Amino acid sequence: MDLPPLSKHQLSTVLKSSRSPTELYNTLLEYESEACRLSIADRNETELLSLFYSTFFISHLLTDQIYEARAMTQRIPQALAQNDPSLQNCLTLLRAVWQRKYELVYKILRELPWPELLRPAVESYETYFQEKTLREVSHAYEAIRPAAAADYLGLNAAAAEQGDPAVIQKFTAVGWTWDETTRLLHPKPIPTSPEKDARLYNELSQIMALVGKHGG
């Protein structure tokens, strides 16, 4: 079935109706050729194209397609990529994710300006990135200092180093143990749940109910 024409309203509809990050990605993938045509036609579609490519970029990250995200950024109209603040943020985020600069990833997600339509997806990616990183760290370490663990998750490292119960509980809640004597956290490997993708996106869908207030 043919999709409705690409528009800001349709983009908002796709975000709200997609049941998983994979479904979102696949739908946006079908719109890429139309976005390309809009960019070639000499029309004032800068805002729409910015939102489309930014959303498509985040959908790559939500489905853990980092290599594909790098390739996709090469297909964005260069004039748009070089001048649009949202797409510049996406490129900055990609570099930080690629280089595994964890603290910088959280700073970019939390502090850079993102369009209202895109912000729920950005917040969902922060949750995804945290949970993915937590799983990776849980398999990589037998023991880790609280401050180092906090840095991986974008938490308050100083509070963690002081043994702040609110921070330590973030880790013990997933099965890690906290040794008061050595002041070390002992990770427990966290298995990947097959329902993870759908559950994370259910959280996003709940947030996206607010988008209608901002969408055009």
> Which secondary-structure class do the elements indicate?
mainly alpha
Number of domains: 2
> How many strands, which pairing sense, and closed or not: the largest β-sheet?
2 strands, antiparallel
How many β strands by DSSP? 2
What percent of residues are in strands? Answer: under 5%
Order of helices and strands: HHHHHHHHHHHEEH
Number of helices: 12
- CA radius of gyration is 19 Å
Query: Overall pLDDT, averaged?
Result: 87
What's the quaternary structure here? single chain
Shape verdict: elongated
Strand order of the main beta sheet, please?
1-2
> What is the first-to-last residue Cα distance?
24 Å
Poorly predicted regions are 197-216
* Fraction of residues in helix: 55-70%
Q: If you had to describe this structure to a student in words, what would you say it looks like?
A:
With about 220 residues, the chain is mainly alpha-helical. It has two domains: about 130 residues, no CATH class; about 50 residues, no CATH class. The protein has twelve helices and two strands. α3 packs parallel to α8. It is elongated, with a radius of gyration of 19 Å. The C terminus is likely disordered.
